[in-house]
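Structural biology now treats backbone shape like a language. To illustrate, our science desk offers a sequence and the tokens encoding its fold:
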Amino acid sequence: MREFLRTAVAVSCAAALAGCAMTEEVVGAGAPRPSGDVTMVVPFAAGGGSDIAGRAMARGLEAAEPGLRITVDNRDGGAGAVGYSYFLAKAGSPDYLLATETSLISLPRSQDVAFSHRDFTPVFKLGEDYTLLVARQDSPMNTCDQAVRRSKEQRVLAGISGAAGPDAIVFELMRRREGAGFDQVPYESGGETLAGLLGGQVELASLNPSEVVGQLRAGRLKALCVFADTRYDYPELAAIPTAAEQGVEVSFAQFRGVIAAGGLDPRAREFWIAAAREYAASPGYAEYVRSEYLQPKTAFGAEFAEYLRANDALLAEVVAR
């Protein structure tokens, strides 16, 4: 499976890059600000957390800068690599943004891709998202530690969104720290992972609260634990224990944010950071954070870049090719 995924990613990246040669004539390098017609690239399929984040940021930035028109472009494939590779070819253009998350760091550490976080312009980290370990309501597993024990005794299929995303990372942390032996089944998005869990293709999944809260309310799924340092404050999630409370010492936050293309004119960079700051101070941002059950830990520009460097160093310990 790992070799298959590597091959798929390489082929996807090559296809994306072949049609998007990085030339100034194509991307209009050096423009001091966006033209007004902007594309928000989402490197995952519609319906998942990244798509929701990208659309919320597009609406929020349009409200912050009324002259902008931002269209969302889902370019999924290769666990996010196709979208990032497409975006790489837009260097210098202020007319492209990308709804980013942890795969920006984990993909270059786990797959043969042509980009790293240093190739892009950090704009705005809008918050952090901790995943839940969830199972169907009829599962014999009720807690995170029970799931770990079961994985040591028999085969347990666990669904993940992307071969190198935060879901894969928490399962890898459980393997390293607790000796768990989950068999991971990668899907292209959180929506597909959820469908696989509900359809019985896998027994467990690591998913964001926003992706599963409806199923938890309906009683179709149950949450075994949250991979966070402390419990959520949101009433719908407050009763879910952390993994550490159950003796499983695993905590990992997926960040969500927006990046611009690399090689921007400094004026374009400052334009996007200023627009992001205005969005972060708006009621729309507060509503998005509440609706998606995020922790509103923000960072802008250079501070976001430093966060990415620190996150990269952390993932170097648990993600390898």
User: Anything to note?
Assistant: The longest strand covers residues 121-130. DSSP finds twelve helices and eleven strands in the chain. Residues 2-127+255-315 form a domain with the D-Maltodextrin-Binding Protein; domain 2 fold (CATH 3.40.190.150).
